[in-house]
Amino acid sequence: MARCPFHEDRHPSLVVFGNGWKCFGCQEHGDGVDLVARLYNLRPIDAARTIARDFGLHVDVSQPISTDARRKIEQARKKAARRRQLEKAFSRKVEEVYLQLAIVRRFVLNLKTFVEYEQVADLVHAEPYLEYLQSELQSRDITRQVEAVRAAERWF
């Protein structure tokens, strides 16, 4: 841990991990190249060159990237794009469950007579189930979250 150089930091809030860094004060984060780029106001490529020079690493930029390496880079990009797409879809599903729960709660709270209650009894009884789905979506266990999304899709 260290005092963050990017904001007025009285207590150490910048943490360096094996694969990067994060300041829990100003929320800045990144990898080693990002840190050097931010510290010295450099472009990322210049920061990478600075790191290579400072540590005596030889980087041969005259050699073009092999087709195998290029293919691996493209696969990694596609995988990252797919992951972002899935995360967005998952977030939309979570928001959908929250919205449905809010609608059910508001509707139930506005019931005034027993006759009204009887007409929408199925909806009233769905509220605990939606609350259960909501708690599962908030779980840290990805398996439980995925099952909750699947259940929500079947229910809606």
Give a written overview of the molecule:
There is one protein chain. With 156 residues, this protein is mostly helical. The protein has a domain at 67-155. The chain is built from 6 helices and 3 strands; from the N terminus they run βββαααααα. It has helices spanning 32-40, 44-54, 67-109, 114-119, 121-137, 142-155; strands spanning 14-17, 20-23, 29-30. Strands 1-2-3 form a 3-stranded antiparallel beta sheet. β1 and β2 (20-23) form a beta hairpin. α3 (67-109) packs across α6 (142-155) and α5 (121-137) runs antiparallel to α6 (142-155). The longest helix has 43 residues, at 67-109. It is elongated, with a radius of gyration of 25 Å. The model has no long low-confidence stretch (mean pLDDT 84).
Order of strands in the sheet with most strands: 1-2-3
Please bin the fraction of helical residues. Answer: 55-70%
Please tell me what the overall shape is: elongated
Strand runs, count:
3
Number of helices: 6
Features:
6 helices, elongated, about 65% helix, about 160 residues, 3 strands, single chain, mainly alpha, three-stranded antiparallel sheet
